[in-house]
Amino acid sequence: MRLLGFFAPWRTDTKRRASKKRGAAKPSRRRTVHRGADWRLRRRVAVSALAALSLGSLIGLWSSGWIDRQADWLAHQALSATAEAGLRVEDVLVEGRNRTARSQILGTLRVGRGAPILSFNPHQARKELEALPWVRKAEVERRLPGVIFVRLVERIPLALWQRDGKLAVIDERGEIVRDAPPEAFASLPLLVGEDAPRHALGLVALLESEPDLRPRVAAAVLVRGRRWNVRLDGGIDIRLPEDDPTAAWAELARMQREHGVLERDVIAIDLRMPDRLVVRTAPGVKPQVGGEDT
User: Fold this and answer.
1) Alpha helix positions (H), 168-262
2) Do 246 and 278 share a structural domain?
3) Which of 14, 27, 53, 248 is most buried by its number of CB atoms within 10 A?
């Protein structure tokens, strides 16, 4: 009994002390949890601030153009390295050039001997060449290691077009050739009429079909957009029909060869009727109307 009485108070005190210790430990764990949560929150805030600062710096560098300048510098260094390795412009070959000045072509290409050939843009060069007045079509190639090849298809001057008292050079498609001086093409036929350029190619083909008459042509007037009056040297007007003007032109050439009709005192010949021609002579000369023997 003593033994139990001796240990009983001790066991009670031990339990009380253990209970106090357990009760005292609980606040300590809660404080540790709170401190961990605060540290994680602070770390997230710091990372977010650092990311925002980095993004702001990148935006600032981009806005100032620093990144673009650095990229251009790196690209320039790379192209310079290719030129040092042998990929540089050594020659420019041009095919099909007739009326386009060599200086215009080189000025458009903007490339010099020794420049990195890989920095040359054939697509852009083609578009700029086709903007030149005489160039209808262009092909541009890089022929490695050092040749730029250009093939041109130029416009063909076909006639002079008179409109509102002004002259312009037109090409084989009836389009005006910009910056072409009309005085340099005085030998071309002169066309008059609002819609004359659209019909110019057919007319020129008709005139060229009779080589004996072609040099005598001074001008041609499109009448109502349907037919032509051709003015020959000496002031002779040839009135061609709307239907089959080529046959009428050939008939005039035949009559000139056989009868010299254009050497007479004639001021106009009407070929609009298929079975006859009407000749108008100068004042005081009897006009003639006839067929084969006229």
Assistant:
1) 200-208, 245-259
2) yes
3) 248
